[in-house]
Amino acid sequence: MNIFLSKAVLDFFIAFGIVLGGSLLGGIGAVVSLQPPTHTMLDIADRIKIWALAAAVGGTIDPMRVIESNMLGGNLSPAIKQILYLVFAFLGAHMGSELVKWVCGK
User: Fold this and answer.
1) 57 exposed, middle or buried (CB, 10 Å; 0-12, 13-18, 19+)?
2) In Å, what is the CA distance from 10 to each residue of 44, 58, 100?
3) Do residues 22 and 92 make contact, with C-beta atoms less than 8 angstroms apart?
4) How far apart are CA 100 and CA 23, in angstroms?
5) Choosing a second label site near 71 at 20 to 30 A (CA), which of 23, 42, 92, 104?
6) Per-residue pLDDT tens over the stretch 34-65
């Protein structure tokens, strides 16, 4: 259980960091290119959320294959773990997006 929890927390913070870091660096890029940074940051936070989720769980389609093969094989425990990893990564990406919205005043 300790390994599962540590990977779940790691997935959360990876997704959170991707959204937050990408938005902040995009805002810096917007300032350099003389565009409104808040609008750019909000747009990037919404668009990068799905990519943060994919990167946090491994960056490939392998987690979906694990879910499919284990569900069809009758092993529910590995499938449930993969689903929970996806949920933790989604929560991290969503929290990052909400933090960017809060910082930008929306």
Assistant:
1) buried
2) 22, 12, 20
3) no
4) 7
5) 92
6) 999 999 999 999 999 988 988 888 866 666 67
Mean per-residue pLDDT for 3-28? Answer: 94
Both structure tokens of 2: 């300790």
The alpha helices in the chain, defined as continuous H runs, are: 2-32, 37-56, 62-73, 76-103
Per-residue pLDDT of 64-91, as tens digits, reads 677 677 667 776 677 788 888 889 999 9
Q: Which 3 state secondary structure label does DSSP give 74?
A: coil
Closest CA to 101 of 50, 42, 60: 42
Is the pTM above the cut of 0.70?
yes
Determine the straight-line distance between the first and last CA of the chain, rounded to whole angstroms.
38
